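Deviations from the work plan: none for this task. Representative record:
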Amino acid sequence: MSVKRILILTAELAMLLLVFMIIIGPMTSLFIWSVAHRWYWPNTLPQEVGFEYWKQALGMRTSLAIGAISILPAFFLSLWVAIVVVIIAMLIAIPAGYALAKYRIPFGAVIMFLFLMPNAFPQQPIFVNLLRTFTRWGLAGTIQGVILVHILVGLVFGVWITSATFKSIPRYLEEAARSVGAGSVYTFFHITLPLAAPGLLASSVFVFITSLDEFTGTFFIGLPFVNTLPMTLYSSSGYNMQFASVIAIILLIPSILFMTLIQRVLRAEYVGGMG
Amino acid sequence: MDQVVIQTKQAVRRGVSLPPYLLLLLPAVAFMLLMYGYPFLSSITRSFINMEGQFSFDNYRKTVELYSKDIGFTLAVTVFSTAVSAGLAILLAVYLRLRQNSISRALAGLYKIPIFIPFVVVAQMMNSFLAPHGILNLSLAKLRVVNMEQPLQLFNFYGLTFGFIWKMIPFSVLIIHGGFQMIDNSYIEAARSCGAGLMRVITRVLIPMNRPSILVALVLVYSQIVGTFTLPYMLIGGKIPTTITVDIAHRINYFRDFGVANTLGVFSYLLVLVTAIYYLRSSVKEMAGSQASEE
Amino acid sequence: MSPKKIILVLFFVLGVIGLLVVGGQKEVKAAPIKLVYMTAGDVNMLALGQNVLGPAFSKKYPGVSLMTVHTGPGDAGSRLIFEKISAEAESKKATWDVDVAMVHQMFMKWADGKDLLLPYAKELSTWKYVSSPFAKSSLGVSVEGYVMPMFHSQTALAYNPDFVKDPPKNYAELVEWVKQNPRKFGYNGIKGGMSGVAFSVGWVYWKTGKYEKYAVTGPFDKAEIGTWEQAFKDLGEFNKYVTITGGNVGTLDALNRGEIWMGPVWVDMFFTFMNEGKLDPKTRMVLPEPGMPGQPMYFVIFKKAAHAKEAKKFVEFVTSPETQAKEIVMRFNWYPGIDGSHLKGAIPPETFNKIYKDVTPADLAKKGRSFPLGEYFAAMLESYEKWIK
């Protein structure tokens, strides 16, 4: 191996190490807190460790002294809501993204911006107003209401990312298919969609995660009957570090699973050029 | 305006009927207008109503008097974090696109992790990690880089931007890398065979071909940062200056002052509007360009 | 069909089924009466409701189950309850979703004159145990009959006795102390937590000496605000020697990590953190002269509650001397909402000594202040923002 290659490899390894420390470093506090029973200065590590908070969170024990509750119902509810939200949101986002990418639409810019608004405008004042509307429509405190709110905040990821994805597909590929006689629907499903798959799936992953992590809107609209995991997390964050860390770690799991599942499905069919 | 006229004429000539895109767009747009339209308009109106219930600019005056420093701070944090995130994300995405060895595969798995961590949790982690006696300072002290009597003070602009960049780079890489993946190898090989070096390939092939994704990442990151509450709340909280979102919560919680709260929201909205306009202008130009070249 | 298509179809089917199942659940009304109890405060309140009060209450009154919902810590939690109830009142529903709630004092100010609450307190058998003035007036708003205090909380300065050998006994000594120990005192200003607000309010009480006028008698006199300029400028000077933390928890965390040696805390949070192993057991407290504010947490019942009768029974249950002694004082080490004399004999001496060690009942009587009347309170907060940059 030439000197140049060795240098490059070393540089790559150094970068990997640096990235590892930057990403894992802050997460260590999460893992440590999730098993800490007693931890105060001047100890760098907890004085006492154990899985007490894990047992409480998973419903295996109830004890008041430590102030935690079983989070399994909230966890499954969050999961359900996220799946439903992804399906509905992508169903309306993909056509919209396609339309915005392929056609010259009057006020197209304004429409794109419309989807961005729930993210651009700080959420608290808006959701207070939404609560009043939803109460009038009988949606406050219901799961349907919460699903609608999650779609509201997730749609921007659905529309913007799919739109950019479709835009990146060279027009000539579609036109080539048309010129040999394929209809537009066939072209869409057999040429455009497969090519756009990476972007579309990235988009759905974000919608999923956004729904799973959504807090402000769910907080306002969902109470008192709908309890998702982020709401439990918010209640204990800062106050009950141990419990909050346990919840945070549990929240990671479905998101990571969803992402790996999607990537595996993708890889199964589309090799080559798709990394 | 002429563009629209030309387009319409072309559409009529080509016989493209309007319904296709209308039907495709309708569900999404109708949903947004229904759900978001009224609360949003209500918020804007509220910002013009003072504590006595009359139409006035009182709220705007008060906001500028008390919070202009915070608005400036929010802008600085957002612009800086977005620029750094995007820059580093592009570099990382390029690396992942061009290199296929075990190191790059490890990196590809590693970088995605922060995406799955909600902001509430990131806030907590950073609080514990960046504190004067937190894990970062303690580790650096062990390595004798930092003196525990004068630890790194990170509950400020630097810690906040670190937190944002930490969370936003993976998001940006995912989008930008997704875009790079769709650029076929043949383009890169063609450029290489013309004698283009690495830098040329990056700046002349990869980035320009991926502009849509990069711009999307920029705008989404920017607007997410502006709207985030939990991270600045935990790291900076009551200190001066703080971000717009913390001030909004303060106004609502202690004063029930929706007037100023919504005014602050309008300012935050304007901050985002500026970038979004830039994005949409450039993508519109691009669309027009690509369509014109097909004539 | 390709595997990818199969999975897509599966998702779709699951989603549709899910929607149906989940949508259907809304119609299920359980046979026993479900009392909806919304509480602000931290996650201990949720655990208390779900794991202790709920089962005990159902045992006493079979046929009623308690559903505890938690809205988050601080005034933000109370505010959410208020927004929810306002929305329901506005929609003119016949009965409301929420029956009973536990809220901060601020809530009473927001609810004043809005006809949202039921005047239930005097009908309870435990009303006779309540002696605190807080049960009659909250931040200047007359609330007699609408509230029952669940427990009382007080702010004080927590300090690390290893480094603070001779804690300051009053605000003036504190000013000297921070000059000699720069950055070792921490509080959160007025944003992000009430402990910092309490400290600042206590400062104004000290500098102006007008506690009676600002917190008890009133009336609100706009001219007073101008007289505070020097007091706040002094506070700005003071701030140069201190660390500003993020909030209530920020101060406790900083104390925990040894970054600061002293700071204002809520006594109930202090004990909770210590019981959960997050604060060194040797940390102590001192209540400086002329005093710092404290506040009760109130039970309120809503006007159109679906189950007002059961709600009253619930409040009666929690404010009974047995529950107050066993849960509030012994389990959580909080100050009771009813008069402490009714609990004597029910509390073992060790507990009594533990919670009253640093802040004695005499201290509380003399130096436990209230927060200012509504308009003075708002004016103080705005003055802080205006004069301290």
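The domain at 153-294+368-387 of chain C is CATH 3.40.190.10 (D-Maltodextrin-Binding Protein; domain 2).
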